[in-house]
Amino acid sequence: MPSAWRVASWTGEWLRGRSRAGVLCAYVLVGALVSAPLEGQEIALPEEQQVSLYARLLPFDRHLMGRGGDEIVIGVLYQADFRESVRSKDAFLDAAGTLSMIGDVPTRFVMINASGSNGLKEVAAATEIHVLYVAPLRAIDLLGVRSLCEQYQISSITGVPEYVDRGIAVGIGERGGKPEILVNSDTADAIGIDFDSRFLRLVTLR
Predict the structure, then answer these.
(1) Looking at residue 183, what is its pLDDT?
(2) pTM of this prediction?
(3) What is the DSSP annotation of the chain?
(4) 4-199 — its CATH code?
């Protein structure tokens, strides 16, 4: 399995959300990703905590902040025919007010239905997605998602720890009752994710 960086547990103070703001949602149907078996997996922490963590983590990625321009587009990959995936997508979006800005850059959200009829490749190119949040999925080829993220230099994130071992760049897990950030170093390097020293001081290599 790819190696992973595991961030040391962060305090409850770090988990506090920022003030909420309006979120623009553009719903886009996509798919053509089904090829390799992948059982649905569970998230480790509630979506509200995930969003709070990512609101603080993503600004540390100099690659992302350098290519966002006037806005950062966050795609949310889910499956309309998988109940847990829809629930997770909805919960993530409900909490996404704390991601209305990444650093000083406004965000825009695009819903991506992996059960749809179009290709993620075309949608990624057309909407210029900068970050892809992967909700729980089943029967979806995550290696294909990883390949497209590398091709388009999209920072992939998730709340399902197992997906980090399957090629998603950054995930949120739980250890000892506290949050843990997992980074697939191979994927992060291929995408070009470049965490600055403030973030790296928190990282424990495993």
Answers:
(1) 87
(2) 0.79
(3) ---EEEEPP--GGGGPPPPP----EEEEEEE----S-------SS-HHHHHHHHHHHGGGBHHHHHH-TT-EEEEEEE-TT-HHHHHHHHHHHHHGGGGSEETTEEEEEEEEEEEESSBHHHHHHHHT-SEEEE---SS--HHHHHHHHHHHT-EEEES-THHHHTT-SEEEEEETTEEEEEEEHHHHHHHT--B-HHHHTTEEE-
(4) 3.40.50.2300
